[in-house]
Amino acid sequence: MPDVRISSSQGKWILFTTVLGSSMALLDSTVVNVALPTIGRDLGASLAALQWTVNAYMVTLAGLILLGGSLGDRYGRRRIFVLGVVWFAAASLLCGLAPTPGILIAARALQGVGGALLTPGSLALIQASFHPDDRSRAVGLWSGFGGIGAAVGPFLGGWLVDGPGWRWVFLLNVPLALLCVPIALRHVPESSDKRAHGRFDVLGAVLGALALALLTYALIEAPGGSVAVALTAVAGVAAAVAFVYVEHHRPDPMLPPDIFASRQFTAVNLVTLCVYAAFGGYFFLTALQLQVVAGYSALQAGTALLPSTALMLLFSARSGALADRTGPRLPLTVGPLLCATAMLLMLRVGEHANYLADVLPAVLMMGVGMVTLVAPLTATVLASVDTARAGLASGINNAAARAASLVAVAALPLLAGMGPEAYRSAAAFDAAFDRAMPICAGVLVVGAMIAFTLVRRPAPDCRHPECRTHGCVTAPPLERGSRS
Q: Where is the Major facilitator superfamily (MFS) profile domain positioned along the sequence (predicted)?
């Protein structure tokens, strides 16, 4: 049984290391959007290249994150975590030195592989190292400090872009890794799951990532209308069908189909797809709208979104406790509707927008909606399956959120009629943004309807999440293993 205490020197080092490692991936997910206009201007990139700058990372991360957790359980959580940190830092260095959009996109895909190794490993190390009596507190501290990192991310990204330059958004990960790796090797105990057995579902992971990549490519390149795009779309659908077939016929599938026998689990993941598709489109386009149309600097754009994250940090734990009393259907219905209202309020943000009158009301409404929604969403996912499968359920939900986000970033510019050079014209981008926000709001309304119709109160003895504080608005927190 793990016996490390938080009050011990080793416990503090473990917590510091896992927070530092996970913060690398978390910061990247929040700062890159702020840097996109500057990256586009500096590298002469099209809107499609900016979409890929976001999505190349998400494709490999979403496709491989479940496999990354399994590798840690089998070969050692510290080993895979350290490998992920080193891989992520090396890919970040390549991102920071990239001379062309193509090399940047390839490096971002490599970053996603590193993220898939270190993201599940950071929390798994806490679960495997701390004494059961301290585990909930350790996870809460990990989640809380991670939330602070998420809050600092847009501000830090804006400062780096306006100061040293956008390349430091990526290069910053290198010194963080140089600090993280030696501490992990010295102070974090190795652990693995002796029950882990069978073959890894590498084929399932590859097919899942390939389907996401092909479909994303088809959506981003669809305005060209070429035969190659159509063939890519067909290949993406074929890869998705093959993925489903493989998962149904493997003895140890990465995504066990029988977990969806729970109606509650299926319903909550459908809500997740709707919510995080809307969030992905919102955060991608809003960072551009504030800079391209409203004339904000990168630092101002990053700072403008801070109130949403601050509300998440301050009130998400209370929201989770309230949802325990009322049941999940109410917050999972009301939360998306509040976020949809926020996206419609964003329509007021145009050229020379006033922050207090135009931007802040929408940002605050978004924060209230996310406070209402995110913690109950995670709790309901974990409560909808057997305790032994809580880690798998959380991983699936996390992958679903990331996949929904990347598809939204690929599809929304197409649906809104954004041309390849739209972000270079304030008028063109503003018009497309005004078409995109109602689409995002509509997707959230669909999510609210699914929650109201299908989500029910969990059993009284259901498991509650140890991650009670949420600061990352781009994906739900991972939770692995059980309390004991």
A: 14-459
Residue 151 lies in a domain: yes
314 and 433 belong to one structural domain: yes
Q: Is 370 exposed, middle or buried (0-12, 13-18, 19+ CB in 10 A)?
A: buried
The Cα angle at residue 175 between residues 100 and 468, in degrees rounded to 5: 100
Predicted local confidence at residue 482, as pLDDT = 41
CA 129 to chain centre: 25
The residue among 467, 377, 478 whose CA lies nearest residue 119 is: 478
Instruction: Please tell me the predicted confidence (pLDDT) of residue 427.
Output: 92
Confidence of residue 387 (pLDDT cuts 50, 70, 90): low
More confident site: 126 or 197:
126
pLDDT band at 444 (very low <50, low <70, confident <90, very high): very high
Give the percent of the chain with pLDDT over 70.
90
| Residues 470 and 428 reside in one and the same domain | yes
| Tens digit of each residue's pLDDT (9 = 90 or more) over 422-440 | 888 899 999 999 999 999 9
Find the farthest-apart pair of alpha carbons in the chain and give their distance in angstroms, rounded.
62
User: Do residues 240 and 283 both lie within one domain?
Assistant: no
Give yes or no: residues 408 and 435 share one domain. Answer: yes
Q: Which of 382, 28, 69 is nearest to 177 (CA)?
A: 28
- The boundaries of the domain holding residue 378 are 259-484
Residue 199: how many other CB atoms lie within 10 Å: 9
**How far apart, in Å, are the Cα atoms of 381 and each of 269, 394, 395, 459, 483?**
8, 7, 10, 13, 16
419 contacts 340 by C-beta, under 8 angstroms:
no
Do 311 and 435 reside in the same domain of the chain?
A: yes
Place of tokens 């309020």: 345
CATH of the domain at 363: 1.20.1250.20
Total domains in the chain come to 3
